[in-house]
């Protein structure tokens, strides 16, 4: 786990293995590089020629570009790493926090195997401190649990030292402490997403959540297959019916004595999705361990909220099941009686996420929270619509949908508001049951949202985040985003809880 400290030391005097500085393209289309604020002492050690040296080495200042140079005399650190920040801000402008976050992440990734690095990036405001800290800690992530670690193995950057932010500045210290709590839990979500499904069964996930809950003062309740059957959770049981690993519904409750609002978070937790009887074809099932990313995000967010001690009541619901084909599996054409009492005709067993979420939505609604947000890798249709880096937001309240979109943008998560067209509901009419789990093919992500809406309690504000695109990165790493599990939506959920605690959302 990467350590984080704030230091009053100057960049020149810091004893570290590397110094990270920012460089940018000259303003107004000018030629050459500009050394970003925070790196003045480093530039002086190069006799004011740091930009020229970096240009000689091929640096352009492009966002995320990394260039390494040996240190001259006058610096305690033997290596200088320059990371590109893109365009130099104009007059009365500052560097965007997401640019800083991604730059810090790129630098941290490039420093694999390094023990200690000082980050001398622009930190003019508290938000900048938070962004650099988050980016560095997220960029220093590595999942190595299943790899042999020989004596020559290089682990992630071990310690991040933030320069330019005073440790005695209460706001800066609080920002750093928040960044550490959120990123540690987000990285724990990444670990869960990356864990092979033969080890992360619904029971194993529930055990991890139980242990973390007790460690952080949460009230934890786990419904096993017997309790689910007794309670009538037909959706969760129907999805898990084909697996030898039975399903679980986990409730994680955080309460605060000063809380005036309550928030329920629900995560889809399909620990492996084969598609069931409606089997996925080859090429579409190799990464389906990630189908529990929504539950991982909710779990991480609730624990982070508890660590931050926010004055808001937050309950997390993890709907955990493994979707497998077998003689006991739910078949296309079967009808399930859900926890709500509604019946659902299952036309496609690979549309299983909405079934487990539906039961959890109904159960969460019984506690009458002020708002419910569910998070799920729900539909390939959303990936087709928004690509691999943007999640969709649907809601039964336009203002709430807008607020979540703005929060996501604030924390650096790409998202887009999506509609719930009423005319698509008719496509889910069933001649046999109250509703079918499939509707029109076109607009499939919106159809899934409309299905979920049917199970939200009357009068409760609700939003649905379809993170199917950004939850699992199958391409190369970029910025602070690794290959594999990303922890998508964790930062949005934590910031949402903060906004609710601050009374900003009604």
UniProtKB/TrEMBL annotation:
SUPFAM superfamilies: Macro domain-like (SSF52949), Zn-dependent exopeptidases (SSF53187). One of its GO terms (biological process) is proteolysis. It comes from the Bacteria. The keyword Glycoprotein does not apply. InterPro entries: Leucine_aapep/pepB, Macro_dom-like, Peptidase_M17_C, Peptidase_M17_leu_NH2_pept, Peptidase_M17_N. It is an enzyme of class 3 (hydrolase). One of its GO terms (cellular component) is cytoplasm. One of its GO terms (molecular function) is metalloaminopeptidase activity. Residues 348-355 form the Cytosol aminopeptidase domain. It is found in: Cytoplasm. Its EC number is 3.4.11.1, 3.4.11.10. Mn(2+) 2 binds at residues 268, 273, 291, 352. The active site is at 280, 354. Presumably involved in the processing and regular turnover of intracellular proteins. Catalyzes the removal of unsubstituted N-terminal amino acids from various peptides. PANTHER family: CYTOSOL AMINOPEPTIDASE, LEUCINE AMINOPEPTIDASE-RELATED. Belongs to the peptidase M17 family. This is Probable cytosol aminopeptidase. The gene is pepA.
